[in-house]
Amino acid sequence: MKYKMPEEFQPLDVIGQPYKPNLLPYGGGVSMRTGRIVFATSRADHERIMSDLKALR
Q1: Which of 13, 28, 49, 55 could pair with 40 as two cysteines, CB 3.0-4.6 Å apart?
Q2: Given this model, what pLDDT does residue 18 score?
């Protein structure tokens, strides 16, 4: 089953929350010490990063 990426995702809404699966659809970071989300990537940032990576081919 393919996971559908959410259209609306606000990274600031999840920072500081305990990590749960599918909480970071576009990537981010979790503290190994506390298990809380320390940064989250927005859809726009994710798309920019992916286009930069595709341009490297």
Answers
A1: 28
A2: 97
DSSP per residue, 1-57: -PPPPPS---HHHHTTSBP-TTS-TT-EEE-TTT-BEEEE--HHHHHHHHHHHHHT-
Residues, the chain: 57
> What distance in Å separates the CA atoms of residue 48 and residue 23, rounded to the nearest whole number?
20
Quick one: residue 22, left, alpha or beta (phi over 0 = left, psi -120 to 50 = alpha)? Answer: left
- The pTM score is 0.75
Interacting residues of 46 by C-beta distance below 8 A, sequence separation 6+:
26, 27
State how far the Cα of 19 lies from the Cα of 42, in Å rounded to an integer. 16
